[in-house]
TrEMBL record:
Protein name: Hydrogenase 4 subunit B
Topology versus the membrane: Multi-pass membrane protein
Bilayer-crossing regions: 6-23, 30-50, 76-99, 108-126, 132-150, 162-184, 204-228, 240-261, 273-293, 300-322, 342-361, 373-392, 412-434, 454-476
Presence of the UniProt keyword Cell membrane in the record: yes
Entry keyword annotation includes Chaperone: no
Lineage summary: Bacteria, Pseudomonadati, Pseudomonadota, Gammaproteobacteria, Oceanospirillales
Subcellular location: Cell membrane; Membrane
Keywords, in A-Z order: Cell membrane, Membrane, Transmembrane, Transmembrane helix
Length: 487
């Protein structure tokens, strides 16, 4: 059964991408909605299987590493697969009504959308470093194409800038992979991790680790390598921006976290861990400040992504040189942060797109009076902001609380100030949007009212980000499942 489920997650998106290339926008939309339902059923089925029978490794065609392609399925993987299904489906439904079907280039949204989904599933399940690279490149090329779908010169410039940064990051990562293969003779992450712990030459892994982390940090847009992100996320269509912020940048961080936790901790140094944490802390403060100062709504949300990415890199100092229980606590906190941020940021970008569509402008001051006539999208924006601020009962609160506990237990009290300061700055830029929307314009309704289905997609994702905080223990419980080998 697991074979069919995994095949559905890997090959069905590729098949849908290929077929939708032959269809127009409306036909591609109908096919994609059917595909979303299929992906939901398969993701839930695999999640149920892992929850009741445990995780497993799967080697394609029975060829074991280092010759074969190794796939890994565990509690974290199925959680990310289900998260991808929820977020991508919400963004896809929104895009079906948000994009203009009569524009000729919009028909390419669905092929790129499904290629992106296939790349994400490949990264979540990839068990070897090169296969992770292949999935990451599929994601990058699809994301660049989606940014360019805006059609304007500014969108093309942002897409080209994104492409160049992503290729530079890929080059650094691939050089690190080459060093790993030259040293250990395998690209299986599990095999590399096993050899690092016993090899006398494990320190030769350190240059490879540095190269891979630098390349992945560039793809994740960690400060100061974030310059490509605000233009790309700010100019892209709102459903595309939601996909990029919620899922695409998480894929490169996911690889960095797995490499660090499975093989990197054994060869890293304290200064490496602290440096990554410091860069994350600067990203939180600097990104939040820039979000507070932006005159355009989508740029506010884009710079908010720069800030929220910073929280993820607190994983590195909070899992190095600490007790196993503290490291596990930090890992669980980061997992909840990734999930809640993906749902909240997708909801925020979709709600921002609805507000821009309603007022006919991307300027923050153009929101004056919108609260009186279009409260639904504004409420969705605020609910997403609750999670970004880390207020209860949101998933953001549960994640930051666990990170705070890990900081205290490890004696790294300085991260507590970063967590508190980031929450306050998040509140400042969210309330700035609300302040602008509550300014009185006049008593007449001059706003365009978007399709209610656009508002429902944003609201459901925002509510899901709050639900993560309530059901956090259930989300984390599936991550401790044992492994078994499957051929």
């Amino acid at each position: 059964m697991s074979n069919w489920l995994m095949a559905g997650l890997l090959f069905t998106p590729l098949a849908l991408a290929t077929v939708s290339l032959l269809l127009g926008f409306r036909q591609g939309r109908a096919l994609s909605w059917l595909g979303m339902l299929l992906q939901l059923l398969v993701s839930v089925g695999l999640w149920w299987l892992v929850r009741h029978e445990g995780g497993f490794y799967y080697t394609l065609a029975g060829w074991d590493a280092p010759l074969g392609i190794e796939l890994r399925v565990d509690g974290l993987v199925v959680t990310f697969l289900l998260l991808t299904t929820l977020v991508a489906s919400g963004c896809g439904i929104h895009a079906g009504f948000y994009l203009e079907p009569d524009r000729p280039w919009q028909r390419y949204f669905w092929p790129l959308y499904w290629f992106l989904w296939a790349g994400l599933n490949t990264v979540w399940m990839g068990g070897d470093l090169f296969n992770l690279y292949v999935g990451l490149e599929l994601i990058t090329l699809s994301a660049v194409g989606l940014v360019a779908l805006g059609g304007q010169a500014e969108a093309l410039r942002a897409a080209l800038r994104y492409l160049l940064a992503a290729l530079l990051g890929s080059l650094a990562y691939l050089l690190g992979v080459a060093l790993v293969y030259g040293q250990f003779g395998t690209l299986s992450l599990a095999d590399v991790a096993g050899q690092v712990r016993v090899s006398e030459h494990a320190l030769l892994m350190r240059p490879a680790l540095v190269l891979m982390l630098v390349g992945l940090a560039l793809k994740t847009a960690l400060f100061p390598l974030h310059g490509w992100l605000p233009p790309a996320h700010g100019i892209a269509k709102s459903p595309v921006s939601a996909l990029l912020s919620a899922l695409v940048v998480k894929a490169s961080f996911y690889i960095a976290a797995r490499v660090w936790l499975e093989a990197g901790v054994a060869v890293a140094s304290q200064w490496m861990a602290q440096l990554l944490g410091v860069l994350g802390a600067v990203a939180i403060i600097w990104g939040s400040w820039l979000a507070l100062c932006q005159p355009r709504l989508k740029q506010v949300v884009a710079y908010s992504s720069v800030a929220q990415i910073g929280y993820l890199f607190l994983l590195f100092p909070l899992t190095f040189g600490v007790e196993a229980s503290v490291s596990l606590h930090a890992q669980q906190g980061i997992t909840l942060q990734v999930i809640s941020h993906a749902l909240a940021k997708a909801a925020m970008f979709l709600a921002a797109g609805n507000l821009i569509l309603a007022v006919g402008s991307n300027r923050v001051e153009a929101l004056a009076g919108v609260s009186h006539f279009l409260p639904f999208s504004l409420f969705s924006f605020g609910l997403a902001g609750v999670s970004l601020m880390g207020l209860p009962p949101s998933g953001g609160f549960a994640a930051k609380w666990m990170l705070l506990q890990a900081s205290m237990a490890s004696g790294q009290w300085w991260w507590i100030m970063v967590l508190a300061g980031g929450g306050l700055l998040s509140a400042a830029y969210v309330f700035r949007i609300y302040k602008a929307s509550f300014l009185e314009r006049d008593e007449q309704d001059h706003f365009y009212h978007p399709d209610r289905r656009l508002e429902v997609a944003a609201m459901l994702l925002a509510l899901a980000s709050l639900g993560v905080g309530v059901s956090g223990s259930q989300v984390l419980s599936v991550m401790a499942m044992p492994f078994e080998e499957v051929q």
